[in-house]
Every structure is written in C-alpha cells, then in structure tokens.
Amino acid sequence: QVQYTRSVSLFRNIGRFVYFNFHLHELHHAYPILPAYYLDKTEIKMPNTVKFIDYLIDAKKMKGIDFIFSTSKKQIGK
C-alpha cells in the first residue's frame, strides 16, 4: 500500500496537533502497528512526501472523483 499513498509535509506542530499526524499517511501504511502519536517521532523519510502547498494547488485543479480514485504522483505534488 505504501506505493499508492503519499504524505504531506507540514510544520511539525501543525501536523501533530491539527492533523493528528494524519499527514504522515505513507508512514502509517509502512508501519501500521506504530501508533499515530509516534509517527512524527520517527526519522524515516518516505519517498512520496509532497509539500502541502503543491498538494493543495494540484488537488484543487482536479474533479473530486478523479482526486479520490485516480490520483498518482504525476498528478498531485509533482
């Protein structure tokens, strides 16, 4: 599942306290037994991480159905 997910880079406190580390989705799929509150404490870098602003701009350009079912690294967060 890791190859089909992506993470979004955010400031650490925003990611932890606003998104509850959900922005580390790719890491969650790589280590599903690791509790979400520990995800931001790992030093593991995931290859599909994109900047939040790039992710937001690209996602807003897409239809909702395409965003949910047809996204890839080429379409979101180039």
Brief rundown of the structure:
With 78 residues, the protein is mainly α.
Please, could you describe this protein's structure?
This protein is mainly α. The chain has a domain of 49 residues. 35% of the residues lie in helices and 8% in strands. It has 4 helices and 2 strands, in the order E-H-H-E-H-H. A two-stranded parallel ribbon has the order 1-2. The chain is globular and about 35 Å long.
Low-confidence stretches: none
Cα-atom radius of gyration: 13 Å
Gap between N and C termini, in Å?
A: 20 Å
What is the count of DSSP helices, taking H or I runs of 4+ residues? 4
What's the SSE blueprint?
Layout: E1 7-9, H1 12-17, H2 25-30, E2 49-51, H3 52-60, H4 64-69
Parallel strand pairs: 1-2
Features:
mainly alpha, two-stranded parallel sheet, 78 residues, 35% helix
